[in-house]
Amino acid sequence: MQGFIYLLGFSLLGLFIIGGYFHLRPIHDPARARRWWRGSLGANLVLGVIGLLGLAITGMQEAMAAGEAAAAGGADISTGLGLALLGIGLPTGLATIGAGIAVGTVGAAALALIGEKPEMFGRTLIFVGLAEGIAIYGLVVTILLLGKI
């Protein structure tokens, strides 16, 4: 597993070094630059995919081995409990993403309205607060689900 981490690390390090090099010395011939970038990005993509697949496979094998060792030792956490905990965390994450999108949209519209009519500040504040309430609902659902375990 450590080999795959090294592979991804060297791939990213190479990408940073090449980016810095070409920032200082750009290629002025468009055909040569396109050919070079196509090859280098393709190689980086292949190395990244191989590294991520390798990490997923070796990580899965290590998790399965740890699960068998824990089962022999009488550990409390099973696969079902782990999946339940992941499922419990989803409402908070998804509600937070939704609240961020809603606050961004409502906040932009509120600022545009306040720019034209400053007396509407109180009303727009209510709508932004309602959009933020989405995240609180997700947190409440997560807390209620944690109580069920």
Structure notes:
By secondary structure, this protein is mainly alpha-helical. It has two domains: 2-73; 79-148, Up-down Bundle (F1FO ATP Synthase). Helix content is 89%, strand content 0%. It is built from four helices and no strands. Helix 1 (2-24) packs antiparallel against helix 2 (30-73) and helix 3 packs antiparallel against helix 4 (121-148). The radius of gyration is 25 Å and the shape is flat. The model has no long low-confidence stretch (mean pLDDT 80).
Summarize the structure.
Helix content is 89%, strand content 0%. It has helices at residues 2-24, 30-73, 79-116, 121-148.
Query: Major sheet, described briefly?
Result: none
Overall radius of gyration: 25 Å
Low-confidence stretches: none
Mean pLDDT equals 80
User: Would you report the number of β strands?
Assistant: 0
Q: Which percent range describes the beta-strand content?
A: under 5%
Number of domains: 2
- Classify the secondary structure makeup into a structural class: mainly alpha
Count every helix, treating DSSP H or I runs of 4 or more residues as helices: 4
Keywords for this structure?
single chain, 149 residues, mainly alpha
Mind sketching the topology for me?
Blueprint: H1 2-24, H2 30-73, H3 79-116, H4 121-148
